[in-house]
Amino acid sequence: MKQLAFFILLCYSTISAAAPYQDTTLGSDIRTVQFYPADAQASNQLDLPVIFLHGEKTMRMEFDELGSQYYNYNFKLIHCNRDWEQSILNDFEFLDGYNEFFVEDYALSLNTRTGYTHYTINVPKAKVSGNYILMVYRNQNQAELAITRRFVVYDNNVTISLDPKFPLDPAWRFTGQQIDFKLLYGEYPLYNPVQTVEVVLRQNGRWDNAFNNLKPMFLKEDEKTMDYHFFNNENLFPGLNEYRGFDIRSFRFRGQNIAETRFDNQKAEAWVNPDKPRKQTALTQWIDANGRFVIENFETRRGAVEADYVNTYFSFETEYEANGDIYIFGLLSNWTLQPEFKLKKIEGKNRYETMLKLKQGFYNYSYVLVNPGMKIDETIFEGNYNQAENLYDVIAYFRPIGARYDHVIGYAAIDYNKLR
């Protein structure tokens, strides 16, 4: 037992040294991590983790730990530069008070087949803009790292105007989405802006496929404008497809894309309708959640502690054997390739299956192919369409002369092909 405990501690120590600069969840019992802006009046689980420095909203995290045991959790903030390396700011420069907090808001699940403890964290407001990491760990010991999540705090020093359009490249005319934009800085003192300003362009809030360090095509000093209109696909994303979705918010009726539900006193189960590739089919537009999910229980409306965990079964059928591994992909997998989200091939058939234990809610997902070189192909099963709806946002960073960290001086988002 001592050797096992030492090994676990060594793993935590190794991971914690690298993990604060990305989104991670450690431990198989920690589930359903949600991270979104909130205030006393309103919140939306689908909102991206981006907040205005001088606004009322702060970041809120919710997560479950399976089992009936309560653990002492702590959290702290890490201020980062634009590349997600820790900045040299001292804690008191970006935060009021001591930078270690107890997670005091927790509750045991009620009337659920799977027991869990639900934890809620309301993140204190930051004093300066920038990239931040929320680090959650056990027993005041950062070696027992549990969760890290990235978020952005921005100021409105500049104005960003987004201009989505059809790609200029004919090869991408029907599949790509080009996001041109301008940065108008007015009287804000941007010195040598081409060198000191960096922008990040994202699709659906994802960091894994974001465009970093884009430089302006034109600088118009007389108009105080930086123009990011490109001609070589520097700002072109694949349009992909509308995300698939399924609804397990109720056991009393079959939700969207659910073929069957079963439940008894021990467990709840749901079967998602068998899926097939959509690459050769015409685009069908519907309102999706851009790969994200919400947690809810229709019967009680208290999803945080009364939503149950459901054994959710997936089946994917193809006309040919896949040349690689097939994964379920989206925010539910933290936009990463996790072993439990890998589908297993059924012997003698071109059918792949898996089961995920998911909390009641509405989920978006897609199927991706991963070749032996671990390259993700998001289009081979889902298709790629210019008319698909996606959310794009731009984050502008600025390092003033003599400054010790990267300021976030502007932020803007636009819904491309939004359905009214």
Give your account of this protein's structure:
The protein is mainly beta. The chain folds into 3 domains: 2-154, Immunoglobulin-like (Sandwich), CATH 2.60.40; 159-239 and 388-416, Immunoglobulin-like (Sandwich), CATH 2.60.40; 244-377, Immunoglobulin-like, CATH 2.60.40. It is built from 4 helices and 29 strands. The model is unreliable at 1-20 (pLDDT under 50).
How are the secondary structure elements laid out?
Elements: H1 2-18, E1 24-25, E2 30-38, E3 50-52, E4 58-66, E5 73-80, H2 91-94, E6 101-102, E7 105-108, E8 116-122, E9 130-138, E10 145-154, E11 159-165, E12 176-184, H3 193-196, E13 197-203, E14 211-214, E15 218-220, E16 225-228, E17 236-238, E18 244-247, E19 258-263, E20 268-272, E21 293-295, H4 303-306, E22 309-317, E23 325-329, E24 344-345, E25 351-359, E26 361-370, E27 376-377, E28 390-398, E29 407-416
Parallel strand pairs: 3-10, 20-22
Antiparallel strand pairs: 1-10, 2-4, 4-8, 5-6, 5-9, 7-8, 9-10, 11-12, 12-16, 12-17, 13-14, 13-28, 15-16, 18-26, 19-20, 21-26, 22-25, 23-26, 24-25, 26-27, 28-29
